[in-house]
Amino acid sequence: MRPSGRKLGEMRPIVIETGVMKHAEGSCLIKMGETHVLCSATIEDKAPPFLKNTGLGWVTAEYGMLPRATNSRNRREAAAGKQTGRTQEIQRLIGRALRAGVDRSALGERQIVIDCDVLQADGGTRCASITGGWVALRLAMNKLLKAGVIVSDPMIDHVAAVSCGIYAGQPVLDLDYAEDSAAGTDGNFILTGRGRLIEVQMSAEGATFSRAEMGELLDLAEAGAADLVAAQKAALG
């Protein structure tokens, strides 16, 4: 039995509320159970210097966690004067994932920055950031299209991410913190709306895993990503 009482292949409740920030070109608040992430998209008219005169755009991300998003207070990284390695890894992951769903030539030489701020953490914050970040990005692209700034839609497909792992010897979908902290195997799966893989991160936290078990987790991830894409579509209307 999972601590939450969920079935092995059952997602936490998914809620995506759009337009939650007045000034951002795209924004949403995504809730996956007790994990809540505020995502916003900012359009910048210039691409990074390394893309000058290439005709290509860029999508990048920044990620942060509020001090009391967790059980005990985490010191603000700004106060410490530097980002942790974990933060840098996660924001690079979010950027890579979202760029996989964008035709950068159609975007043109401009940059969209996705900010993901974790308000409350209960496992799966990077997955929620990617899933919600895509919604914010979609809304920003809609503004560019409506204004005639770009003529063709740069969004190739949906992008969603979900965690899976082996908890108490069983493959489970969408780990919360209680499961994540005790899982023998932990994985994050990023997929497109068509079920194509963008990235898979898997590691043996307490016990090694077999190829068959990896396949079971991938099956769960495909089903979970489909649920997330459905939630994205419902939020966008």
Radius of gyration over alpha carbons? Answer: 18 Å
Taking the alpha carbons of the first and last residues, their distance comes to 36 Å
Mean pLDDT: 96
Query: What is the level 1 CATH name?
Result: Alpha Beta
Number of domains: 1
Give the H and E element order.
EEEEHHHEHEEHEEH
CATH topology: Ribosomal Protein S5, domain 2
pLDDT < 50 stretches: none
Helix content: 25-40%
Assembly context of the chains: single chain
Strand segment tally: 9
CATH architecture: 2-Layer Sandwich
Class inferred from helices and paired strands = alpha+beta
Strand content: 25-35%
State the shape: globular
Strand order of the largest sheet: 1-2-3-5-4
Main pleated-sheet profile: 5 strands, mixed
Q: Helical region count?
A: 6
Query: Going by CATH, what is the homologous superfamily?
Result: GHMP Kinase, N-terminal domain
Question: What is the secondary structure topology, with strand pairs?
Answer:
Blueprint: E1 14-18, E2 26-32, E3 35-44, E4 58-65, H1 77-80, H2 85-99, H3 104-107, E5 111-120, H4 125-146, E6 159-167, E7 170-173, H5 177-180, E8 185-192, E9 197-204, H6 211-236
Parallel strand pairs: 4-5
Antiparallel strand pairs: 1-2, 2-3, 3-5, 6-7, 6-8, 8-9
Helix pairs in contact: 2-4, 4-6
What's the quick description here?
The chain is of the alpha+beta class.
Structure description:
- By secondary structure, the protein is an alpha+beta fold.
- The protein has a single domain (14-236), classed as GHMP Kinase, N-terminal domain (Ribosomal Protein S5, domain 2, 2-Layer Sandwich).
- The chain is built from six helices and nine strands; from the N terminus they run ββββαααβαββαββα.
- It has a five-stranded mixed β-sheet.
- α2 packs across α4 (125-146) and α4 (125-146) packs parallel to α6 (211-236).
- It starts with 13 loop residues before the first strand and ends with a helix.
- The model has no long low-confidence stretch (mean pLDDT 96).
- Pfam families: RNase_PH, RNase_PH_C.
- GO terms for molecular function: 3'-5'-RNA exonuclease activity; tRNA binding; tRNA nucleotidyltransferase activity.
- It is an enzyme of class 2 (transferase).
- This is Ribonuclease PH.
- One of its GO terms (biological process) is tRNA processing.
